Amino acid sequence: MTETLTSSPANENTAEEICYDHIPWPVRPSIGINYDFIVSMYLGGCGLALFFLTLEKQLLDPLLEDAGINTEENDNAIEVEQDTEKEEVDPWKEFAKGMQGMYFVFAPFALCLPWSVIVRYFWMRETVKAAKDKKED
Questions:
Q1: What whole-number distance in Å separates Cα of residue 135 and Cα of residue 127?
Q2: How many CB atoms lie within 10 A of CB 67?
């Protein structure tokens, strides 16, 4: 089965043809990983972080201010209800409370994106170099 995999056209660039040993280890590409996909996923995560940040700052903060909730002072405060009567709660205000800080979930994508772009650069450089060497032979 390994003979079939190594002789297939998709796997023509084997470990012997592409060598990443001269690239520093933090940004050294791994063989068999498509870094175009990795970069696109990190870019999508950054897009989601920006979307949720914009949603919170532009649309949800005005809803919370209208509800009498100061978002800057009460982020870590515990709310205790004094009234025993049930009050009607606006579903949009509840949604706004629940969505606060959602962009923090996707914030690490912004830190990983530059790393993945650098790794993709080295991956593409070595792949193109191996393809040129193969054409010359």
A1: 12
A2: 15
pLDDT digits (tens, 9 = 90+) for 70-122: 555 555 555 555 555 556 778 888 888 889 999 999 999 999 999 999 999 99
**Residue 99 class from Cβ within 10 Å (0-12 exposed, 13-18 middle, 19+ buried)?**
middle
State the DSSP H helix or E strand holding residue 75, giving kind and residue range, or none if neither: none
Distance CA(94)–CA(78), nearest Å, equals: 15
Q: How many CB atoms lie within 10 A of CB 45?
A: 18
* Cβ atoms of residues 41 and 33 within 8 Å: no
Give the whole-angstrom CA distance, residue 128 versus residue 134.
Answer: 10
